[in-house]
Design a protein that fits this description.
About 45% of the residues lie in helices and about 10% in strands. The protein binds protoporphyrin IX containing FE. Protoporphyrin IX containing FE (HEM) binds next to helix 6, helix 13 and helix 17.
Length: about 475
């Protein structure tokens, strides 16, 4: 029997059997459809369960999501408020614990402690050189494209979107290049929760511990060194745990953003039209995806610090609330017409809000934007290699992933290190080179036919190299 609508299932007399299970098959098959059903049946705040006996409130309303994210005094990020946990109803082997079990990290802190840890993270992230990160993104994109460009076909989820963010993030952290590929494998294994997940987690943490020891002895211009030297005086263990947080959160989310953006670039005629002078640019597509297909559909969680009211519901102290970012983004109360373009509008919930709002959003956007821009420059004839209707997604309770994105294009020879660290423009282009160029550089209109080949690498300014190459005097 479904509990009365204004009563959290945790406090209802009836069992949770009639309450929707977010671990269940309906959510796996069609989470957006499920959210709409729950919205119709329950309004902006719906009772749900996670597995057989863990109750929670799922926030479907845009305003309710923001209210919870922005009011830590009523809705804490500290999972030790959780009544189910305090009452011993969560077993030690619960699959929820890796995600919501309290850890000494900024994600689970509020108030002064959160400010101390968060300041170290945001100050250090703000020091990341925007030009430098674009060079890493471009360099790794070329490296990955080189692996498949001679084939004339590729699968862009496993071959590109799942690999690039981690390669870039290892550079931001201050790791040598060769760490990237093994960390990609280890973090993917860890997130899948496979039998070897614990071993993979240990590998990631040990690698970060060695990195922190090395950076303590020899600081560099990187996130690990800046965290160690920050006035918040993080312990070495806190630095390790926050680097791990950056790697895991940043990698998974940016991978999803890239895959969903690539899918839209390849299938939505509005983007192709923009190449011929329309209006939907790559940053527009990214924002559109953030509105309609957010990398995290649900963020667990917040915990009520006392009895309160939300969206017409009575919430009890210690209840768990799940931010429904995907549902809130399409709430009819703020988007009565889902077809209306949202270009330039960044007020979606995909990076959450309030004191825990994602501090890495600019880095995530830069990776997706620069990488996809560079990929399209290398392979301008890129096209989907299966009918769009054959694309598949897999959903968990917190995210929804595209399984594969098979593409085809004209085979091309691999480029020999097409972009060096001087920031050389990798290939000519006919549309504004927004992402690859630094803010103070200007894009040049060039010949479309030339995009199939690469200009030679050279340690000269990119505009000189491009000019020489166009004139046939590249050597
Ligand atoms: C573009 C894809 C990304 C999306 C959609 C995304 C989304 C989010 C969301 C929804 C949260 C949870 C906020 C909350 O609890 O209310 C979060 C937190 C966080 N994200 Fe991101 N993120 C992205 C990329 C990144 C990147 C690239 C980094 C690091 C370089 C990063 C670092 C973090 C950190 C450290 C937190 C915890 C912040 C805190 O609790 O104070 N994220 N992110």
């Amino acid at each position: 029997m479904t509990p009365p609508p204004d009563q959290c299932p945790a406090h209802a007399q009836s069992p949770l059997a009639g309450v929707v299970d977010l671990f269940g098959s309906e959510n796996e098959k069609d989470p957006m459809g499920l959210y709409e059903r729950l919205r119709t049946e329950h309004g902006p705040v719906a009772p749900v369960r996670l597995g057989d006996d863990v109750p929670a409130w799922l926030l479907l309303g845009y305003r309710e999501n923001l209210e919870v994210a922005r009011t830590p005094s009523r809705f804490s990020r500290d999972s030790r408020y959780w009544s189910a946990w305090a009452e011993g109803r969560i077993p030690d082997d619960s699959p929820l614990l890796p995600v919501v079990g309290w850890q000494p990290m900024c994600t689970f802190a509020d108030g002064d402690e959160h400010e101390r840890l968060r300041a170290a993270l945001t100050d250090s992230m703000n020091r990341v050189d925007r030009r430098g990160i674009r060079r890493h993104i471009t360099r790794f994109t070329h490296r990955l494209v080189n692996e498949f460009c001679a084939e004339g076909q590729a699968e862009l989820v496993t071959g590109f979107a799942q690999r690039l963010p981690m390669l870039v993030l290892t550079q931001v952290l201050g790791m040598p290049d060769e760490y990237g590929p093994r960390l990609v494998e280890a973090t993917r294994d860890l997130m899948k929760g496979s039998d070897t997940a614990l071993r993979s987690d240990r590998y990631v943490t040990d690698t970060l511990r060695h990195l922190v020891e090395r950076k303590r002895a020899e600081p560099g211009e990187d996130l690990a060194s800046w965290l160690l030297g920050h006035p918040s005086e993080l312990t070495e263990e806190e630095v390790v745990q926050h680097l791990r947080l950056v790697l895991l959160t940043g990698n998974e989310t940016t991978t999803n953003l890239m895959a969903n953006t690539l899918r839209m670039v390849l299938t939505d005629p509005r983007f192709r039209a923009s190449l011929a002078g329309g209006h939907m640019t790559l940053p527009d597509v990214i924002e559109h995806v953030l509105w309609n297909e957010p990398p995290l559909t649900v963020v667990p969680g917040r915990w009520a610090t006392g009895d309160t009211e939300l969206g017409g519901r009575r919430i009890k102290a210690g209840d768990m609330l799940l931010l429904g970012l995907a549902a809130g983004n399409v709430d009819p109360a703020i988007r009565p017409d889902l077809g209306a373009p949202m270009y330039g509008n960044r007020s979606h919930l995909s990076f959450s809000g309030g004191p825990h709002e994602c501090p890495g959003q600019d880095i995530g956007r830069a990776i997706a934007d620069t990488a996809i821009d560079t990929l399209l420059l290398r392979l301008p004839d890129l096209r989907l290699d299966v009918p769009e209707t054959e694309l598949n997604w897999v959903a968990s309770w917190i995210s929804r992933h595209l399984v594969a994105l098979p593409v085809a294009f004209m085979p091309r020879r691999p480029a020999t290190d097409p972009v060096d660290t001087s920031g050389l423009l990798p290939a000519p282009r006919t549309r504004p080179a927004r992402a690859v160029l630094a803010d103070d550089e200007e894009a040049l209109p060039v010949d479309e036919a030339a995009t199939a080949a690469m200009p030679p690498p050279a340690r000269v300014p990119w505009w000189t190299a491009l000019w020489r190459w166009l004139r046939g005097t590249a050597s």
